[in-house]
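Q: Could you fold this chain for me?
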Amino acid sequence: MVQRDARGRRLAARGLWTGAELAVTLGVVLLLLVAHQLWWTNRQARAEAAGTVQALQRDWEEPEVAGEGPADPAGAVEASQEPADGSPAVAEEGGGERPAAASAPRRSQAYAVIRIPRIGLTAPVAQGISKHGVLDKGYVGHYPRTAQPGGSGNFALAGHRNTHGEPFRHIDRLRAGDRITVETRDAVYTYTVDKTLARTLPGDSGVIAAVPRSNAKPYVGYRAAGSYLTLTTCTPEFTSRYRLVVWGKLSGVRER
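A: Sure. Below is the predicted structure, expressed as structure tokens.
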């Protein structure tokens, strides 16, 4: 009987020890996964995004060869030379003309740089909002079928709020009057932050319409045509349950 009790205690102790080892191993694995998501993906994506910004700026300094489109530092095919919305150059305030809206790029092509001084953001803008091809690289993604920078309608963008460079992590800090610039090969477009929608449903497509207006909260948004900028990201942080939206209006254009 004594021997059986001793053996039972040894087996129980061994089982507890094995369980503790498994728990520690699982904890280490979880910590590594968290570190990968919260640290490594940010470091990797920010490095890639910064390299793309530098490549774009170097490319813009080189004169275009007649008959050829701009080089694509992100490895995509050259962009069309026609304005995305078909609009001609329009008069700037104070006389003269400003450049037409940026031309339509190919899918996943990085073609612009967005800067938001309030939150210290400088990031490339690429065509599309796919995770693998755009967002997970730390890029800001342009919603297809919305206006291009400077164009009539709504230049709508998406970006991660957490992990993979998290370019839009702090857009909740933007306030009316803050400036946002979008630089392309041809011009620098300045938008002024105007309105914020703190929370809406992921399927609220009205926020990226040509005249942006929430479908879920119809009293929030605009009623008149114009040249708008929309920033969208997930909210609350570390979830994708809702969307946070920031709107701005085109307030200036400077030819490069």
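A (continued): DSSP finds one helix and eight strands in the chain.
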